[in-house]
Design a protein that fits this description.
Helices cover 16% and strands 41% of the residues. It has 214 residues and is an alpha+beta fold. The strands form three sheets. Strands 3, 4, 7, 8, 11, 12, 13 and 14 form an eight-stranded mixed β-sheet that branches. The protein has a five-stranded antiparallel β-sheet with strand order 2-1-9-10-15, with no helix packed on it. It has a two-stranded antiparallel ribbon with strand order 5-6. Strand 5 and strand 6 (64-69) form a beta hairpin. The model has no long low-confidence stretch (mean pLDDT 94).
Length: 214
C-alpha cells in the first residue's frame, strides 16, 4: 500500500513532464492493488508523459481468478514475466509514502517516507499494456498496468518488514537513467535506500495515510 498526496503540478515539475502530457491527478491517501494511479514513462516520440495506470501486473491462473502482482524482486529479473518490461518499459511511480503491517488482530500499519513532510519521490517501476480478463470468467478489458521493484530492506524498514523494500529513486539523474538507460545502467540504481534518509511518519491500525497534503 502506498500514497501519492501531491498535486498534478508538483508531479509534473519534479519529473519534468510538460503540462500537456500529464493527466488530471487527484492526491491519493491510500493506493491499493488494482487501483489507478499516475506513472511517468517515455512516450513513442521519446518525451516523458504521465498516464493513469492500474497497479499490478495481471497473472492468469488456471481455473482461478487472475492475480494482481504489485511488485517484482531485483533477483528475479530473468523471469519471462518481468524481463521484457524491465528491459524496454520502465517507468517512475510517484509516491509520498508507503506502508507495511506488523502484527495481527489488529495489524499496525507503519508508514515510511523520506521525511516528516513526505516529499515526493519515485518507485522504480515497469509497465505494460494488458488485454484480457481481470476477474474469473470476467469480460476482456484493455488496461495499462504497472508494478515496481523491491530489494533488500534497509535497517529501518527491516524493523517492520524484514524481507524486502521498494527501490527508491529521488534525483533527476536517477529518473533519467531509469527511464532512458540500458538494462545494465538501470540495474546500477538497484539498492536499499539509506535508512538515515527515511522516517516512520505514522503508525496506526488504519490502513490509509491520514495526512492531508497539497
Amino acid at each position: 500500500m502506498r500514497s501519492m498526496t501531491k498535486t498534478r503540478e508538483t508531479v509534473g515539475k519534479l519529473f519534468r513532464v510538460s503540462d500537456n502530457r500529464i493527466p488530471a491527478i487527484d492526491p491519493l491517501a491510500g493506493i491499493y492493488p488494482s487501483n489507478n494511479a499516475p506513472v511517468i514513462r517515455i512516450a513513442e516520440d521519446g518525451e516523458r508523459e504521465g498516464i493513469i495506470s492500474s497497479w499490478g501486473f495481471v497473472l492468469p491462473q488456471k481455473d482461478k481468478a487472475p492475480k494482481r502482482v504489485t511488485n517484482f524482486r531485483d533477483d528475479n529479473l530473468g523471469s519471462p514475466f518481468w524481463r521484457s518490461s524491465f528491459e524496454t518499459r520502465r517507468c517512475l511511480v510517484p509516491t509520498t509514502s508507503f506502508a507495511e503491517p506488523k502484527g495481527r488482530s489488529p495489524a499496525i500499519w507503519h508508514w515510511f517516507a523520506l521525511g516528516q513532510d513526505r516529499p515526493l519521490f519515485a518507485f522504480a517501476g515497469i509497465w505494460r499494456s494488458f488485454r484480457g480478463a481481470v476477474k474469473k470468467d470476467g469480460p476482456v478489458v484493455d488496461l495499462e498496468v504497472h508494478s515496481f521493484m523491491t530489494t533488500t530492506p534497509n535497517p529501518l524498514v527491516a524493523t517492520i518488514h524484514p524481507n524486502r523494500m521498494p527501490v527508491i529513486l529521488t534525483t533527476d539523474e536517477e529518473f533519467d537513467i531509469w527511464l532512458n538507460g540500458s538494462a545494465d545502467e538501470a540495474r546500477s540504481l538497484v539498492r536499499s535506500y539509506p535508512a538515515e534518509n527515511m522516517a516512520i511518519v505514522q503508525s496506526a491500525a488504519e490502513k490509509v495515510d491520514m495526512l492531508d497534503e497539497c
